[in-house]
Amino acid sequence: xxxxxxxxxxxxxxxxxxxxxxxxxxxxxxxxxxxxxxxxxxxxxxxxxxxxxxxxxxxxxxxxxxxxxxxxxxxxxxxxxxxxxxxxxxxxxxxxxxxxxxxxxxxxxxxxxxxxxxxxxxxxxxxxxxxxxxxxxxxxxxxxxxxxxxxxxxxxxxxxxxxxxxxxxxxxxxxxxxxxxxxxxxxxxxxxxxxxxxxxxxxxxxxxxxxxxxxxxxxxxxxxx
Length: 225
Ligand code: SF4
Hints:
Rossmann fold; six-stranded mixed sheet
């Protein structure tokens, strides 16, 4: 692990503001920190870029995204002081289909996510000492105890979750106050946005992640759990 101490114990971490956590991370890691973004919104990228202009923003370009998500990625690149890096799998969708059969996401989404999301991001993170993610405790039961800062054993980097304690309302308010682009699907019945084949609309008031891998036990792609 990078030779540093985290800013305070767990209790202090729970209290720290997103800006304070990012300031600490920028001091510790500077350009050796990246931001991960699913392009659901651009709040975290904007927050980090304010303190670390032209930070690398890693976008997991699985080949299965909605057009709206790619549009959000392009708008982020044009409107923010960030360097968007497309993190792509080893195989194109066509190559994966030829090797593993079409629609692997239907038959084995764990393997599909492992090849198209988890492995490419792990490889990309070898270039950094830390990554900042938009993980929030209120998003899912699997994220209820997400710390602000932790050691990411799987990826061998420090993991920073500056928005861990933020509510949906705080995210929306920050995006509105700063005129940030958000994925238009958020206003079209998709409160949580992943790859198109594995993301469905949800009814108003339903669990926000219930449209992800709907009908399966799977709730995470493997990047965060
Ligand atoms: S979310 Fe679906 S399409 Fe995307 S990588 Fe995972 S299984 Fe494949």
